[in-house]
Design brief:
Elements: H1 2-10, H2 16-24, H3 28-49, H4 57-66, H5 69-86, H6 88-98, H7 103-152, H8 166-173, H9 179-187
Helix pairs in contact: 3-7, 5-6
C-alpha cells in the first residue's frame, strides 16, 4: 500500500527524479521548445497575412497618383503665403470668396480629405507591417549566416617563420620603399 501511494505521488518510477522536479520547476527544455513553436507559428501567421503580392502597372500608376495630394496641399499652402505677401489685394479677394462657401460644403471637404488620408495611412501601415514581417522572417537565416562566417575564423596568414635567422626576421619587419607609393607622392 505504501508503494502504491509513492507510485501515485512520484509516477511509475521510470523518471522519478525528472517528474518530481517538474512539479517544482518548469522543464526548461520543453519551455524553450514551446516558445520556439509559438514564435514560429506567429511568424508564419504574419507572413501569410502580409504576403507580398506582385503589383501590376495599374496599381503602381494609382499609387503614384495617390502621392500627389499631400505635396500639392503643402506647396499650395506655401503658395498662399507667398501670394499674400506679393499681392495682398488679390489674396484678400480670394479669401473673401472662401468666406461665402457654405458650412456643409466645408464639412464635406473635411470628410473627403480625412477619409483619403485615413485610407492611405492604413494602406501604408499595412505595407510597413508586411515589410517588417518579411524582415523578421529572414532573421534566422541571417543569424545562421553570421554564425557560419564567425566559425570560419580569421583567414589572414600568420607571420612567416624565419627559422633561427635573425637577419631574415628583421628584414621582414623593416619597411622598404614602395615604388608605386613613391611615384604617387611625386605626382600629387
Amino acid at each position: 500500500m505504501v508503494m502504491d501511494i509513492l507510485r501515485a505521488l512520484f509516477g511509475s518510477g521510470a523518471n522519478v527524479v525528472r517528474e518530481t522536479a517538474e512539479v517544482f520547476r518548469v522543464n526548461a527544455e520543453a519551455a524553450d521548445q514551446r516558445s520556439v513553436e509559438t514564435q514560429r507559428a506567429a511568424l508564419e501567421q504574419m507572413a501569410g497575412e502580409f504576403r507580398l503580392e506582385n503589383r501590376g502597372l495599374f496599381d503602381r500608376i494609382i499609387d503614384g497618383l495617390n502621392r500627389i495630394p499631400r505635396p500639392a496641399m503643402a506647396l499650395g499652402t506655401i503658395g498662399l503665403f507667398v501670394a499674400a505677401m506679393v499681392d495682398p489685394l488679390w489674396f484678400g479677394e480670394r479669401m473673401a470668396g472662401l468666406a461665402l462657401v457654405p458650412e456643409p460644403l466645408w464639412w464635406l471637404l473635411g470628410a473627403i480629405v480625412s477619409f483619403y488620408f485615413g485610407a492611405r495611412y492604413q494602406a501604408k501601415g499595412q505595407d510597413f507591417q508586411r515589410s517588417i514581417a518579411s524582415t523578421i522572417a529572414r532573421a534566422p537565416l541571417v543569424a545562421e549566416s553570421i554564425r557560419t562566417l564567425r566559425a570560419l575564423g580569421p583567414t589572414s596568414p600568420g607571420v612567416a617563420d624565419s627559422g633561427g635567422d635573425a637577419e631574415v626576421a628583421l628584414s621582414a619587419l623593416t619597411p622598404t620603399d614602395n615604388p608605386a607609393l613613391a611615384e604617387w607622392r611625386r605626382r600629387g
